[in-house]
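Bit of a strange request maybe. I'm writing a small parser for structure token strings and I need a real example to test against, not something I typed by hand. Could someone generate the tokens for this chain?
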Amino acid sequence: MSGEGHDHGTHDRSSRRLALVALINLGGFLAELAGGLVFGSVALLSDAVHMLFDALAYVMAWAASYVARAHEGSPEYSFGLHRLEPLSAFVNGALLVPMVAVILWESARRVTDPVAIGTGPTLAIATGGLAVNLLSVYVLEGGEMSLNERGAFYHLLGDAGGSVAVIVSTVAVSWTGVTVVDPLTAGLIAVLVLWSAGKLLRGSGAIFLGKSPVHPAEISAAVADLEGVAGVADFHAWQICSELTVATAHVGTTAESMADADALNRRIHAVLAEYGVDHATVELRPIEADRSDRLAAHGH
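Reply from user aminoacidic:
Good idea to test on real output. This should exercise your parser:
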């Protein structure tokens, strides 16, 4: 088995980013919650609830990242606790779904029973919420992001869109006096939240269901092109978490010595690493040259 170790610096950086974003969003949630309750804006309240769930998501993501880094592996857990990352992401996505239902219910109630809102203070708080979102995006953006960081990034994009929608709706209510714009905006935010949930559920679900993160046919062809390879069979690839891809393969070889086989094994691992495989188990099977075509014909 061969593969590169995980970069502790990358994990530490990811953990610090998620922790900082969680703290920023908890502060933003408290400000928007207070503003929504005091000034009667359901759009602001929905954005506050969105921000709260996001903050909780970031806390869970940080905890999963920290625990996975602290427990790299053992005889019982050979890949450590890295599965906590997709598990946390899946739970975060699932938690967003009931939040959408709450927002839609409250929005529908406000459409039939409009409530006057304090437009000036609401606008100021919504602008502050947008500043929180943009600051959080600044903290996360740059470099390759983990699944949890990408999940947080999608949340933040939805939050930023929600804050912009609140600002626009508040201005519209202020100019026109039509308060129904506020709950309609909350419904729009609910759609953004649902989009975020779908992104997280699809990404984490793909890991749990064993979807290959690479193209097996393309990689098999690249390995088969190496000198000394007679064919590739039983290639499988899956992810333990978004930062750890594992693969296995049976490779037929015409290498005639252990030295040639070792050199070929290193070249195969180099090709797999180029395609993003972190840990690979490659079984070399000696095969006569006149049987190469048959192995290739049965490879996949």
